Amino acid sequence: MRKLLAQLVRHARRSLAKRGVLGTLVLVVASSGALVNNLRPAHRHALRMQRQMDRGFDQKYHVDTAGTVSQGSLDVRSRNQLFATRYEPIRDVDFATLLADAGLHYPDYTFVDLGSGKGRAVLLAAALPFRRIVGVEFSPRLDAVARANLEHYTGERNCTDIELVCMDAARYDFPEDSPLVLYLYNPFERPVMQQVADRLAASHARRPRRMLVLYFTPHCAAVWDELAFLEKKLDSDSLCIYDTGEVAPAVT
Ligand SMILES: C[S@@+](CC[C@H](N)C(=O)[O-])C[C@H]1O[C@@H](n2cnc3c(N)ncnc32)[C@H](O)[C@@H]1O
Fold first, then answer.
1. Beta strands 239-243 and 211-216, pairing class
2. Residue 81 Cα: closest atom of ligand 1
3. Beta strands in 81-124 (DSSP E)
4. Number of folded domains in the chain?
């Protein structure tokens, strides 16, 4: 408990220096539910188990993806950091389940992970024969770890066209040369999610094609629910899947 308090004080100091009083207050209000939950013994036990599994993944594949990293300790130069969640890798079992639920013919699709962190989902996607994989992360530090991971990963690779981009997801232009899978693991809050959704809608209007949004831990599902070109195919507390359905090729 003492360790936890010392950690909180450290984060508070850093946040005050970086965001000022108002910015820190916004962050505290936005994350207060999670803070209270983190103090519960059952939750802390579950976290310990999760960390053990994460370390197992890293040892097995010679990478560094485990653990959480708070935004307060990251080197991000974007106002959107105010709306960003902390880094936390997806569990391999969860990733396998969400892709199984989507039922894709992988070679047709470009897989985009917005908020790719240390690249765990990018590495897991690489085992599948996707046409192309892109990870977008705005922290240069996490992006550098992801690049090293991609180099050293000893797991299966069935996609070789993999790109990591270090930038704010709110400004990312989606590739328009193939059907798309947009994967989101609760990366940011509504203001950024809305910009991402608007960009995806504009990209679809410009170049109609099949698109799926796989949204894990869908805290801002309301943003996606409002989009007329997407149909909600799966709706649960842990995963929402949105799909345009098959799109007929444009007649030229
Ligand atoms: C919960 S982690 C998910 C990591 C990874 N996608 C996975 O599934 O293992 C969310 C990540 O989103 C990143 N992030 C948050 N806001 C972002 C933004 N506006 N642009 C790019 N990355 C962002 C965070 O830094 C963090 O690494």
1. antiparallel
2. 16
3. 110-114
4. 1
How much is the pTM?
A: 0.85
Per-residue model confidence as pLDDT tens digits over 199-239: 999 999 999 999 999 999 999 999 999 999 999 999 999 99
State which residues form the domain around 216.
92-243
Query: pLDDT tens for residues 120-156?
Result: 999 999 999 999 999 999 999 999 999 999 999 999 9
Which residue's CA lies nearest to atom 5 of ligand 1?
116
CA angle centred on 34, ends 28 and 38, rounded to 5°: 120
By the 8 A CB rule, do 85 and 187 touch?
yes
List all residues whose CB is within 6 A of at least one atom of ligand 1.
Answer: 80, 84-85, 87-90, 113, 115-117, 120-121, 136-139, 142, 168-170, 185-188, 192
Give the separation between CA 125 and CA 192, rounded to whole angstroms: 24
Which residues lie closer than 8 Å to 81 by C-beta, 6 or more apart?
71, 74, 138
Mutate to test the pocket of ligand 1, among 74, 124, 188, 189 (most ligand atoms within 8 A of CB): 188
Cα-to-centroid distance, 78 and ligand 1 (Å): 13
In CATH, what number is assigned to the domain containing residue 174?
3.40.50.150
Mean pLDDT computed over 82-86: 97
Give the closest residue (by CA) to ligand 1 atom 27. Answer: 117
What is the CA(250)–ligand 1 centre distance, in A?
A: 34
* CA pair distance 206, 193, nearest whole angstrom: 20
Is there a domain that residue 108 lies in? yes
Q: Is residue 52 part of a domain?
A: no
In a domain? residue 149:
yes
